[in-house]
Amino acid sequence: MASSTQMATSGSGRERLRASSSIKNRYETLWLTRFILRLLTVFCQFCSRLQRKGLRSSCKMCLRGLHLTTFVGWPLEKIQHASPKKKCLDLSTARFLGPFENLWRIKKFLNIGSEKHLKKALSIVHGYSIKIIRSRMLKGMELDGREDLLSRFASIKDSNEDMLRDIVTNFLLAGRETTSTALTWFFWLVSTSPDVEKKILDEIKCVRSSKVITTETFSFDDLRDMNYLHAAITESMRLYPPVPLDTVSCKEDDVMPDGTFVGKGWFVTYSAYVMGRSEDIWGKDCMEFKPERWLDENGVFKPESPFRYPVFHAGPRMCLGKEMAYIQMKSIAACMLERFQIRSLKEGTPEHILSLALRMKGGLPVLLSKRED
Ligand code: HEM
What we know:
Layout: H1 4-10, H2 13-19, H3 21-52, H4 60-63, H5 68-72, H6 76-79, H7 84-94, H8 103-110, H9 113-139, H10 149-154, H11 161-191, H12 194-210, H13 220-224, H14 227-239, E1 245-249, E2 254-255, E3 261-262, E4 267-271, H15 272-276, H16 279-282, H17 322-339, E5 340-344, E6 352-354, E7 358-360, E8 366-370
Antiparallel strand pairs: 1-4, 2-3, 5-8, 6-7
Helix pairs in contact: 7-9, 8-9, 9-11, 11-14, 11-17, 12-14
Cofactor: heme
Organism: Rhynchospora breviuscula
GO molecular function: heme binding; iron ion binding; monooxygenase activity; oxidoreductase activity, acting on paired donors, with incorporation or reduction of molecular oxygen
């Protein structure tokens, strides 16, 4: 039988690694760790429920700020008051976090617990999407002779209302939660960094004075000229990526470029949050909010490889709405900061809620003061 060293020189990488029983053992250990973590999460949720009812005082884990519920999702009762869209996001994330992998399927079949809430919330979101499709159908799918994205999907042979509904829902979820989350963290960071705020305002003034802008909003060209604002938003998403973890499922057995074997059906997760705070990628000042790191010597925005900055994912399945997201976020940020001074009323660094998007716990209460000039 060939030893693993012999195989390393003779066999293909895939055969070599598949034959390695140590890798299998490692993944069995990982599976066990994941199972224990999921089980602990359930205990943590149970413990915090008892605390809320006054039946238990804080446990050692709470005192050390190690609530597993904070890291891996919300307990159900917190979700009950959330909007249908947030419920959908949180409850679908929770499917991956329960102690038993397929428990959610049973709950779905029996229509109980979190799956019952998910079904209800989803029917509201679906109803909203169907309203959009039907109102567009009534107007005719062509908009003033120009086709929009929905018309294009509708013109696909075999398209039906359910398919269009899922596409609209997908765009609503992909495009709304991400930009709103990104802006929440951006406004918090800017409100705590007066020097960055001043530079953004100077840039807005400069763009206003260099052109005759008659509207209160900014055109595509005006926004394109705002390099510092672009850098500040990009830097804010480095520290607080709206999609902090992204998971893909492996279709066939494969080997990563570094030689790691990935089996069919396995999940692979990367963390844009961890990568964004990695000293190896961003240097010693990786924890600082420094928009300047994105500017060249002429003050022009210099992009980074998406494989180092995977906030919008990388490769063929990269975010389709990236450019649109930047336009929306820059436009809102420029209009808001030009008119108002925003002061955060949050004390200290806000806590996260990890759902599909990296939301700020409790939102961002602010004090808005109209700017004099
Ligand atoms: C700051 C804002 C945004 C961020 C950080 C973001 C991030 C991402 C990420 C990480 C993915 C990859 C998900 C995956 O496949 O695993 C993705 C995919 C996608 N995003 Fe965004 N996104 C943003 C805004 C938007 C907007 C505004 C739209 C459109 C309205 C949009 C539409 C999409 C679509 C359609 C995909 C699926 C692409 C595909 O699978 O080929 N996104 N986005």
